[in-house]
Amino acid sequence: MAKVMLASSLTRWLPEAERGAQGELSVEVDGDTVDQALDSLFLLHPSLRGYVLDEQGTVRHHVAVIVDGEAIRDKRNLGQPLGERGELYIMQALSGG
Q: What is the pTM of this model?
């Protein structure tokens, strides 16, 4: 099982009853790869799909996905394997200048 952590910037898109007490949400999901874990997450929280992924199934530009402490570089290739106790952290990406 993989552990998915959603930053509070994402949980605000969930109904209040589904939010974590601190704004963040931790969910254990099935999946051997990033895309499988995300599919499992979206089964639990379907309203997140459109915020995290675009119409082609690519992680949106303004969203960061971190796998076991390292940001994924190719947001189109979500077949990256997860370890037995893999951790995904999903947050709003920030930019500035």
A: 0.87
